[in-house]
């Protein structure tokens, strides 16, 4: 340590790093700590318990009614603007509801896109500024505040909930006085929320925010609708489907029972591919399917498809989140390759069969967050290596419940030291 | 003089000034040691682990009688050292062996666990492993320990990046794709209450009476049907 980066322990005098919270020489706590305890129970319960006292106070307060009437608290209502100007003896404050990154712009109406019955959460921030200077006035203003609550009216569709968490300071938005995490269910819906700020002097401030939820559209395309007979047909369709649908729409392509010769590259709008499940014929790909669509945090699904290799190449090469369900991978040098990095990458596989591949599943990634850490009920038979894990590990455990490993040269080659949970896998 | 990172400095000073009593826990993620400061005779818990120490960093600035005091946090990359207060007492798990608690005791312990969870939830963290083994009774105080499974709630996230918790106490969403939030802990508190009252998981034997109804609401499969936060649960208690 140099002198600018150290401080003496106030108890024993030993030199400590400036950021130290504890002196290990004399075992003394150095930093001040705030004692936290939950607030009192709700006013209703308090009212029940203190009713006799309150009655007495009401009688005593009778004499003060005349004084109260002459100093009646003020009501400030934003009338739907999401913003009010509040003036007291210290000045005028701009108080508004908005997004974390736009502290001066009220957001009286928020429209969110959602899938049907999806559960969503997003933050709403309360900002307080000095009106004349724009300086953050949260600290001084909150000292004058008695309470802040937030509540939605009953939504248009009452079966789809919309709720606020109690407003509180959160490091997520350090410039905001308070933040509330708002929860809603994916339904075509709308409701008005009201934030009520009760000041110590009795003034009331009402801020309103309307939450509209628009359902994301889902488009299903069948072989009867579009030509999907050859790999060229399919490539042309996945390249152009983004022009036919909205940016957030879900696209499901239901493939016929044909064998696609050649490679498919998905780089535009994300699509989900459904293999044929009617009759005995399956949808087969003999070339590499590259999964690298646009859109953040989007999972592309592959359902009930056979990927049949000839001993070389990669079956599915996933740069973005990809989830194979009910698929069969046979005869590849690498059957399912995960090479996406960062939060947008990752693979999952459920109820898939991997047979006779050099490497069945290959994680070749760098700090990938599993979007789903569980890949259950897969069968790995006669592969050179069933699962090969390279790159930087995460602290997440990869869990393989119900997976069967049989006749593989190596079942799991965990070169990265990735935490694994194979307690419910079967090896024979 | 050379600038020494706090992690390296703390590791070195702990080796000089403290002595290992015993290793309490070892996992791929790291170790938990009980150590003693011979000069004062005080005992401490030293956690040495890889991963995210954000919850411990936040706890550095607060104190609560129902949580162990976090004394120091030092990180270097993914490696973390956390020094915390050693809580001496019996775990609830030990005390419940072959025994059940009267409703008043259950109400008292649960309320204290809720107070600890309120502190974590108010700083945006979720404990995710509330169970009898992680509750120590120190005199009349119940202390919630072990934040190894805790995480900060990310409202923008699609789902949990990992599935942690203890089978039987973990809420359904801890096995699925939706992200866990404070209602996940409320689910585990419900299971905990039922175990204290009946010795059984509520799916086998739900406690009777008013506390049984509280358990039933805590353990609803749909998170939005549970108590929305621990304050509401404490009211119901």
Q: Quick recap of the structure?
A:
Chain A is mainly beta and 428 residues long.
- The termini of chain A sit apart by 56 Å
Q: What's the CATH topology name of the largest domain in chain B? A: Transferase(Phosphotransferase), domain 1
**Largest β sheet strand count, sense and barrel closure of chain A:** 8 strands, parallel
CATH topology of the largest domain in chain A: Pectate Lyase C-like
**Number of individual domains of chain B:** 2
Whole-angstrom Rg of chain A: 30 Å
Helix content of chain B: 25-40%
Can you lay out the helices and strands and say which pair or pack?
The complex is a heterodimer of chains A (428) and B (237).
Chain A: E1 6-8, E2 15-17, E3 22-23, E4 28-29, E5 34-35, H1 43-49, H2 51-61, H3 65-70, E6 75-77, E7 83-88, E8 91-98, E9 109-114, E10 119-130, H4 138-142, E11 145-152, E12 162-164, E13 178-185, E14 189-199, E15 204-215, E16 218-221, H5 231-240, E17 250-254, E18 259-260, E19 264-266, E20 272-274, E21 283-285, E22 289-291, E23 300-303, E24 305-308, E25 314-318, E26 322-325, E27 328-330, E28 334-338, E29 347-350, E30 353-355, E31 359-365, E32 379-381, E33 385-391, E34 398-399, E35 404-406, E36 410-414, E37 420-421, E38 426-427
Parallel strand pairs in A: 6-15, 9-15, 16-17, 17-20, 18-21, 19-22, 20-23, 21-24, 22-25, 23-26, 24-27, 25-28, 26-29, 27-30, 28-31, 30-32, 31-33, 32-35, 33-36, 34-37, 35-38
Antiparallel strand pairs in A: 1-2, 3-4, 7-8, 8-10, 10-13, 11-14, 12-13, 14-15
Chain B: H1 6-17, E1 19-27, E2 30-37, E3 42-50, H2 54-59, E4 62-63, E5 70-76, E6 79-85, E7 90-91, H3 92-95, H4 103-122, E8 125-126, E9 135-138, E10 141-144, E11 151-152, H5 182-198, H6 209-218, H7 230-236
Antiparallel strand pairs in B: 1-2, 2-3, 3-6, 5-6, 7-9, 8-11, 9-10
Helix pairs in contact in B: 4-5, 4-7, 5-6
